[in-house]
Design a protein that fits this description.
Layout: H1 2-44, E1 46-51, E2 56-59, H2 61-67, H3 71-74, H4 90-99, E3 104-111, E4 117-128, E5 134-143, H5 145-161, E6 166-171, E7 177-180, H6 182-188, H7 200-206, H8 210-219, E8 226-233, E9 236-246, E10 252-260, H9 262-298, H10 306-337, E11 345-348, H11 349-359, H12 361-367, E12 370-374, E13 381-384, H13 386-403, E14 409-417, E15 420-427, H14 452-455, H15 461-471, E16 475-481, E17 485-493
Parallel strand pairs: 12-14
Antiparallel strand pairs: 1-2, 1-5, 3-4, 4-5, 6-7, 6-10, 8-9, 9-10, 11-13, 14-15, 15-17, 16-17
Length: 516
């Protein structure tokens, strides 16, 4: 009887057991793929959930990695803290759409823990409670920062390709050429294979772009960020700008821009030729006028009233000034056109110093100053151009006398420094204002205390001095303190190298001393 009852129970429960096994199998068919999909979503996307009050409830590992924040730092914080200040209204607009039961799609900029911005393509789905009311959302994001940056770079490259100027972008660490625009490729003949990937060292070895390599080396590890200079490539004058740019990764690249300045050079040449022609035409009659005035002023038997004599003296001084201006302009044009010739001779520098001292005796007397000379007791042989050297010395001495003040002193000193000599001219004048010292060797530099009308001068003298000294292989500089005085100094080599230094080229093949 017991066996019969058991059999009945088993028979009755068998369908239930079979139904339970079948249901579990069917549920597994539904749940397992769902879990796999969720795992795939979690592995591929940035996922987070937010409650009805706008607080972050959960985040996956990709969210913590992308935002640079830990899970503890994110959970419980307002979701609005993830958005940059420029997008302060975006979370509110998204929230309004979710509360209306609508899904939000779009691009969202988010703020990294370090303050930088990254971009995501986002889908935000509203979540409902058991009664159908809105109580939060789930966000699924894809990081598109690299894609967005690439699109931006592509647009930039498209714009750069249309420019007439040559553009190079060179990696600062390995000197690999990352980019070259269409104008640059055409200049170098890279119309077939791309120029990218070539090494700058190899490129400049095959061309006449060596100054670019020198500029890059000078900027790499320097406090300066840019260098500008002019070169000639295949007969075409180019203005070159080399700028070092730091990138976000802490390394950097060189941005090299070259502009064809053929039109400007041609215009400058025409202007120079016109100025030189006019200056030559003016100098001859002015010399005649000055000579005639000198004869009249020196004649003792000529019946000239004192007033007329004073007027002739004024005319004589102004003719001197005009001749000085013309001579400076002609020298400047010679420098610009590369026609200033240096006649090197073996001389005694001590004698040249004394000669320059005597040449400025009249200015010394008129300025009521005293020029003190030191270092000329012994002969000092040197190879240089004596006439150009006297031009530099008389210019520096004249300036010092003009600014030394009444009963001031000017010190002219010579020092033998082995392979080089150092010559300095020091005055006790008002000094050069600090904010104007960078202009001192510029042409026509208008300084606060220059007062050309009263002191004379053209504003070209120091620029010419710098060109002459540098063409002779030397360097020139100054130091000044307001209210104390100014010292101009320059050095020259005792013996000139065998290389030709007979001219100063307008388009120098080395970086100039202009940095940003």
């Amino acid at each position: 009887m017991i066996g019969t009852i058991g059999a009945v129970i088993i028979a009755a429960g068998a369908p239930v057991i079979l139904m339970s096994v079948w249901f579990r199998r069917q549920l597994r068919h539904i749940v397992d793929p769902l879990e796999q999909k969720l795992q795939a979503l979690d592995a591929h996307s940035v996922v987070s959930t937010v409650d009805g009050k706008g607080r972050i409830v959960s985040v996956n590992d990709k969210m913590t990695a992308l935002s640079g924040r830990s899970r503890d730092a994110l959970i419980g914080s307002p979701v609005s803290t993830l958005y940059p200040e420029s997008e302060v209204d975006l979370p509110q607009r998204i929230r309004a759409r979710l509360k209306a039961g609508q899904t939000w799609h779009g691009e969202t900029p988010l703020r990294h823990a370090d303050g930088s911005t990254f971009y995501t393509q986002t889908t935000i789905i509203p979540l409902s409670d058991t009664k159908g009311g809105w109580n939060g959302s789930i966000s699924v994001r894809t990081d598109i920062t690299s894609m967005k940056q690439l699109r931006s770079e592509q647009k930039t490259m498209e714009v750069l390709d249309e420019l007439r100027d040559d553009i190079w972008i060179v990696n600062s660490s390995d000197w690999q050429l990352n980019y070259m625009n269409n104008a640059a490729r055409q200049r170098l003949g890279y119309l077939g294979p791309p120029a990218e990937g070539k090494n700058l060292e190899h490129l400049i070895e095959q061309t006449d772009f060596e100054p670019i390599g020198l500029a890059c080396r000078a900027l790499n590890g320097s406090a300066e960020s840019a260098s500008r200079f002019e070169i000639v490539h295949d007969g075409v004058p180019l203005h070159v700008s080399v700028k070092f740019v730091n990138d976000a990764k802490g390394s950097g690249f060189f941005l090299i821009v070259m502009s064809d300045i053929s039109d400007r050079v041609a215009q400058d040449r025409k202007k120079s030729e016109f100025v030189a022609t006019v200056s030559h035409e003016l100098r001859s009659p002015l010399t005649s006028i000055k000579g005639a005035l000198s004869l009249l002023l020196s004649a003792k038997d000529t019946q000239i009233s004192d007033k007329a004599r004073d007027l002739m003296a004024i005319a004589h001084r102004n003719s001197d000034r005009l001749i000085l201006i013309i001579n400076d302009i002609l020298d400047l044009e010679k420098i610009s056109s590369g026609e200033m010739q240096m006649q090197l001779q073996d001389i005694d520098l001590s004698e040249i110093i004394c000669e320059a001292r005597h040449a400025t005796a009249m200015i010394e007397k008129l300025s009521n100053v005293n020029i003190e000379v030191s270092g000329t007791a012994k002969p000092l042989p040197i190879q240089t151009d004596p006439n150009r050297l006297i031009q530099v010395l008389t210019n520096l001495l004249s300036n010092a006398c003009k600014f030394a003040g009444e009963s001031g002193r000017v010190r002219l000193s010579l020092k033998n420094e082995g392979d080089h000599v150092r010559i300095s001219v020091e005055d006790e004048g008002p000094g050069i204002p600090v904010n104007e010292q960078h202009m001192i060797f510029q042409r026509f530099a208008d300084m606060t205390n220059s007062d050309r009308a009263a002191k004379g001068g053209t504003g070209l003298g120091l620029s010419i001095c710098k060109a002459i000294v540098e063409s002779l292989g030397g360097t020139i500089g100054f130091q000044s303190r307001e209210g104390v005085g100014t010292e101009f100094f320059f050095t020259l080599p005792r013996n000139q190298p065998e290389a030709d230094i007979s001219q100063i080229s307008q388009l120098q093949s080395k970086p100039v001393e202009r940095h940003v």
